[in-house]
Design goal:
single chain; 83 residues; mainly alpha; 4 helices; extended
Length: 83
C-alpha cells in the first residue's frame, strides 16, 4: 500500500486575526502549501541560559514571530548559502 506524504507548514498564531492582523486559521488551511520540502531537514538541539531563552521568546511574542524562524534567520545571516 502506498503512503501519501503531506507537508505540514507552521500553523497560524492562536491569537484572533483581528488583533494580530494575521490571516485566520481558515485562511491558512485553505492557502497552505502542500509542496514537500525539497531539502531534507535536520534537528539542532542546543543549550542556552534560561535568561537568554526568555529574552528571545518574549521578543518573538511581541513581534508575533516564532523563535525557530528568527533563529534560522540569524544562522542564515552568519552562514549564507554559497553559490
Amino acid at each position: 500500500m502506498a503512503t501519501k506524504k503531506i507537508a505540514l507548514t507552521p500553523s497560524p498564531l492562536h491569537k484572533p486575526a483581528a488583533k494580530t492582523g494575521a490571516p485566520s486559521a481558515d485562511h491558512w488551511v485553505k492557502t497552505r502549501s502542500l509542496d514537500v520540502e525539497k531539502e531534507p531537514q535536520k534537528r539542532l538541539t542546543l543549550d542556552i541560559p534560561a535568561s537568554l531563552h526568555a529574552r528571545i521568546k518574549s521578543q518573538c511574542a511581541l513581534d508575533g514571530t516564532k523563535m525557530v524562524e528568527e533563529i534560522k534567520l540569524l544562522l542564515e545571516d552568519r552562514w549564507p548559502e554559497k553559490k
